[in-house]
Amino acid sequence: MVNVNGLRTAILQAVNHFAQDDDFMVVTDFHLHLDTDTGEVAIADDTEMTIASAVVEEWVDLDGDDDMETLVRELKTLLSEMSAEGAFEQVSVSKPFSFVLEDDNQETIEELFYVDEDLIVLSDDLLKDMDKDLDDFFEKLMKE
To answer: Is 82 helix (H, G, I), strand (E, B) or coil?
Structure first.
């Protein structure tokens, strides 16, 4: 299991950063950039200004699609846990906003988590077999 306590703190710092400003700022995304040479995850706002960062030792020298899939899964899990704990409920950032993993060219690799007051976005893992499950359910229902 990856130790992400420092990253958890950095995410909270990034989200709460805007509470310090007197001007209300609409933020649509928090951009996470990973430096695989150092394991540093920098979190930037929409203006590309880094507002928080943390080093995850286990993410140094990641290589390949399998490692990236694992990293994405770990980030999604962390953000889901933080949301379940209420970490994003009392923030001074307008909703909706997202956490997005980006590459060095600031191209989106994957949207990690979406925060909104009234909307819950289900993960791809939950949805991937839903069509088959619904078809099986309706077939069984029609037989009865």
So the answer is: helix
- Can you tell me whether residue 115 is helix, strand or coil? strand
Summarised one tens digit per residue, pLDDT across range 29-86 is 899 998 888 889 999 988 889 999 999 888 887 776 778 888 889 999 999 999 888 8
Q: Which residues contact 25 (CB under 8 A, 6 or more apart)?
A: 18, 45, 93, 94
Burial of 13 (0-12, 13-18, 19+ CB in 10 A): middle
Taking the C-alpha atoms of residue 65 and residue 139, their distance in angstroms, rounded to an integer, is: 37
Q: Which of 42, 40, 84 is nearest to 60 (CA)?
A: 40
Long-range contacts formed by 30-33: CB under 8 A, 24+ apart = 30/97, 30/98, 30/99, 30/100, 31/100, 31/102, 31/106, 32/75, 32/99, 32/100, 32/101, 32/102, 32/112, 33/102, 33/103, 33/104, 33/106
Q: How far is residue 109 from each of residues 16, 57, 99, 101, 104, measured CA to CA in Å?
A: 24, 21, 11, 6, 10
123, 75 Cβ separation under 8 angstroms: no
